[in-house]
Task: structure prediction
Amino acid sequence: MKNMKIMKLIPLLLLFSATLTLGQQKKIAIGPYVQNMSYGSVTLSWSTLEGSVKVVSPDGQTMSLPKYEQHEIRLTRLQPNTTYQYDVLGDGSDEGKGSFTTFPKGIEPFKFVVLGDTRSRHDVHQKIVNKIIDEKQLFVVNTGDLVGNGDDILDWRHFFRINHELMKSTPYFSVLGNHEKDSKNYYNFFDLPGDERYYSFTVGDALFIVLDGEGRQYTTPPFIKKENRDIFWNNQNVDYFIKEKEWLENTLNLYNDAGYIFVFMHKPLFSIKKSRVEGAKMRREFWGDIFERHNVQFFINGHDHHYHHAFNGGTHYVTTAGGGAPLYDTDALQPEPVKFAKVEHYVAIKVGPEEATLTAIDIDGNVIEKIKAPRRK
Ligand SMILES: [Fe+2]
Result:
């Protein structure tokens, strides 16, 4: 679709395309990459290497960590559905170059891709990313646990190396997972709408809501007894989650005219992993019937490392967490599951005039399942 549109726009591109030179002398270590896209604006980000930090342990082992400086620029007053070329170094060399296509302003078909739990097995992550590049989607969503340890700068270096080709031209929206650890690195590298923890954005009349199911990460003081640790942590976040739920209800009310609503959160509301069934039930109790009541078509999450589809009250609950982390068996089949597959995968979603179609695709290109959901009335 995007290609066809670009061809139609060729005469316009002659007018609107611009090579944006943003003047930056230092060489790039991470990026450039495209974020926080709308129909008229976008953020370009990249990091330069400022030096390295050495740490020596008592046994003489030396650790060397890269010290990056993050750069970003917000571009505004762009034309909708238009492809721009950019060069963040402004020197004509390939390393600063990329392109992006702004979102359409009106209602028209588009495709986006979702993957999750890309934190380990970098070869698998790379293979999935290479397949996604071929999808030529408008944007990508990662359902969280992008990296193994959000505090570890080396994990982020891996992540951005693997995603370099994809992210230099495709907006990447992320969801906070438990492995991000609420780390400063996450907020430094990503520019996301709102306060970046939970946020929304739109494409045409499709609404996308990203929730934070993790909350603020406090270090529980070591003197708190083991049996009180969960209570201690939960109490720290009660106000935070109540506020988030109010924001969600308000957002869903404001966007009641949306043709499609997609909600993303890291942890599932329906789990088929025994050790996680109870947690999923607790989350379901907390969020209640809010997704069904507002006719949300898709709630998409990660965390359980497999593909899983449950259907409840008109809402499809899809777990996509096959982006690299070790796969999980299912050991607790609940009444709800429609489909389950223990395989590395991603999902591609086509949003059309009458319906949205989610296709789950495994690492070898086989279709696991197709789900169709009609436009909201
Ligand atoms: Fe997780």
Observations:
- The longest helix spans residues 229-254.
- The CA atoms of residues 53 and 59 lie 18 Å apart.
